[in-house]
């Protein structure tokens, strides 16, 4: 028995059914009969056909695993139903099979080569986006989110027509910092993706977070709030000196 079942994804349960009895089995059907709320059969049965004595045949059951499921070894209940030579229905019930359910994964992985931004500055951020699924994705729209002291600029969305499994594209966004950004600190930005899956259904991913490091401005100037405070102090001192001179 094999499977590619994974938390919060569609998958397949694949196996082989064999006729070890003394007579032929007709219209053989493998059925999923479990009641686990986190195991969601896309189709509850798979037709196998007729199996003569000693014959075997492969079957595939499409099954989805819910987002609340836990990864690990799971037991699934199956039933094999068939008709004998007299047309009577027979069934082998309560056939428990053990399968491994893989943990949930990000639908898209993101990577930023240069994760720094100068305090008080603005820059474009190139994000490498990879399709981490086992199926193609199309009409992919990414959106960038940032909270103070980071902010998105004029370009906070990216788009690519399609990505095959494992394929990577680069999306470019604009990122800026406000005056309260502290050099040496790290702040998160977030991205989510809306896309169409292989069945044409629209999907929205969970949010991916990427750290951004704020560094000193290369021009060596003081941050804007410090400059304003310094000007106010100088202006006040000049006023006091002027009044004393009177």
TrEMBL record:
Bias-annotated ranges (Basic and acidic residues): 1-13
Keyword Membrane on entry: yes
CARDB domain ranges (all copies): 111-189
Protein name as it appears in the record: Exo-alpha-sialidase
Region entry Disordered, spans: 1-20
Keywords, in A-Z order: Membrane, Transmembrane, Transmembrane helix
Membrane-crossing segments per the record: 222-242
């Amino acid at each position: 028995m094999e499977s590619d079942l994974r938390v919060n994804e569609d998958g397949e349960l694949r196996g082989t059914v064999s006729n070890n009895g003394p007579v032929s089995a007709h219209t053989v059907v493998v059925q999923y009969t479990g009641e686990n709320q986190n195991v969601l059969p896309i189709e509850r049965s798979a037709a196998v056909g007729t199996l003569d004595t000693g014959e075997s045949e492969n079957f595939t059951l499409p099954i989805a695993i819910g987002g609340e499921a836990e990864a690990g070894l799971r037991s699934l209940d199956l039933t094999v139903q068939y008709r004998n030579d007299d047309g009577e229905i027979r069934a082998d019930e309560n056939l428990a099979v053990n399968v491994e359910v893989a943990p949930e994964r990000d639908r898209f992985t993101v990577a930023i080569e240069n994760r720094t931004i100068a305090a008080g500055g603005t820059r474009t951020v190139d994000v490498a986006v990879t399709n981490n699924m086992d199926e193609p994705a199309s009409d992919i729209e990414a959106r960038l989110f940032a909270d103070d002291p980071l902010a998105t600029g004029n370009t906070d969305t990216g788009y690519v027509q399609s990505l095959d499994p494992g394929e990577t594209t680069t999306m470019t966004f604009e990122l800026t910092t406000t005056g309260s950004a502290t050099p040496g600190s790290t702040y998160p930005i977030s991205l989510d993706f809306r896309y169409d899956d292989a069945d044409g259904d629209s999907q929205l991913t969970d949010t991916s977070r990427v750290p951004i490091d704020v560094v000193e401005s290369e021009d060596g100037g003081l941050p804007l709030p410090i400059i304003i405070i310094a000007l106010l102090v100088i202006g006040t001192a000049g006023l006091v000196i002027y009044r004393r001179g009177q």
